[in-house]
Design brief:
mainly beta, 3 helices, four-stranded antiparallel sheet
């Protein structure tokens, strides 16, 4: 890879390994609608939450994750196999119950599974709960507790608990602000931030009571939109990715100082806007991605752009960083997912057609919508094809 350290490469880098999406991949959940976001219950990782434009769905994936029950890949998903899989689930689902409404698990009988195939997803995951909440754009799970935030097109931000039918708290009411673009908890889980398409980032104290307060600080970070952000050395030092009319689309802010002095550094980059970013604290790097498929790597100490690579042929929708910071992963509207070395950055692997572009049946959106990396190199993704997929990444 000869052009990896140049700032303006002529085309996408070629991967060390290129695999089709069906290689060693499992479909965890499937919907006829685009899936915009996915989260995991950090207190019980077999529970997941999935959101579409029409609803929020909580599922239990314990049986699918069990090595004794090999879930089919996309190529293997025949009707005959689905039928035999459903029978296996019915025989082995003693501990997994379908919940509709707010009834606690203890109140439900084993018989509810035997005649409730509507309680199974298309791939065998157990449906726990459906919430008729429309327009959810982003889900963010608490780092240690069984709660998650939902940010919606109507500007609302609500806190939910897995298995409970009603929202625990509302941190921003419907129509109280612009569309929510992203949510993030701090590593400790005591605070969280919200970005919106009005160009603002708001910081909140975490609260799981009905008397949850509004933001303790809001800052205008980009004059058109903020698409993503990352907490850095503290809950008050943030990096933002957005869209500004002067093309300063990645910026560093200190929320402890007065707003007029809060901007520490901004970077002219990502023509058309920066779509997402991640922070690598051990390397002191910010990695941002753009709407034209490019990835930029910034040195936080020197506050300079180290390198830029043309990573995808379309807008990059999601970035995730490995906990050990050995690699990061990008997902694009072109449907591909790519794995990169942080320090080089050499491309380790490319998974083409991970998520197909949406059809006119599914409205707007295309390709990969979100990536989620779990311990053990377990990579989850959701997309415009209405699927949540799971693979375990090999050693590089």
């Amino acid at each position: 890879i000869s052009n990896i350290f140049q700032t303006a490469p002529t085309g996408p880098l070629q991967p060390t390994t290129e695999l089709r999406a069906g290689s060693n991949i499992k479909v965890v959940y499937k919907e006829p609608d685009i899936i915009t976001s996915v989260g995991v219950n950090q207190a019980n990782p077999v529970q997941m939450v999935v959101c579409t434009s029409r609803e929020i769905v909580e599922i239990n994936t314990a049986i699918l994750m069990d090595p004794a029950f090999q879930s089919w890949t996309e190529e293997e998903a025949t009707e005959e196999r689905r039928g035999s899989r459903m029978k296996e689930l019915e025989r082995t689902a003693e501990d997994f119950l379908v919940v509709h409404g707010s009834a606690p698990l203890s109140d439900l009988s084993r018989s509810s599974l035997s005649d409730a195939h509507h309680g199974q997803s298309a791939t065998g995951a157990i449906l726990i709960l459906r919430r008729g909440v429309t327009g959810v754009r982003q889900i963010e799970s608490h780092p240690s507790l069984p709660y998650y935030l939902c940010g919606s097109e109507d500007g609302s931000v609500r806190m939910w608990e897995f298995g409970r039918n009603r929202a625990i708290s509302t941190h921003r009411a419907s129509q109280a602000g612009p569309c929510v673009s992203h949510l993030h908890f701090t590593a400790q889980g005591n605070k969280f931030g919200m970005a919106d398409l009005g160009g603002n980032v708001s910081l909140y104290q975490f609260g799981y009571t009905s008397a949850a307060s509004g933001p303790y600080q809001t800052l205008k970070c980009h004059n058109r939109a903020v698409y993503d952000f990352a907490f850095m050395s503290s809950s008050s030092f943030l990096a933002t990715a957005g869209y500004s009319s002067d093309n300063r689309n990645v910026a560093l802010f200190d929320f402890l100082v007065p707003p007029r002095k809060a901007l520490i550094k901004s970077f002219y980059c990502h023509d058309g806007g920066a779509s997402c970013l991640v922070y690598a604290p051990a390397h002191q790097l910010i990695i941002s991605a753009g709407r034209r498929g490019e990835i930029n790597i910034f040195d936080v100490r020197q506050r300079t752009l180290l390198r830029s690579i043309q990573a995808h042929g379309d807008s990059i929708k999601s970035l995730v960083m490995a906990q050990n910071e050995e690699f990061f992963i990008s997902g694009s509207a072109d449907g591909s997912v790519k794995v990169w070395d942080v320090s080089t950055p050499k491309m380790f692997s490319s998974f083409v057609d991970q998520h197909g572009r949406s059809s006119f049946f599914r409205g707007s959106g295309s390709g990969v919508q979100q990536l989620l990396l779990r311990p053990g190199r377990q990579l989850f993704s959701c997309g415009a094809d209405g699927m949540v997929k799971w693979r375990t990444l090999a050693d590089f």
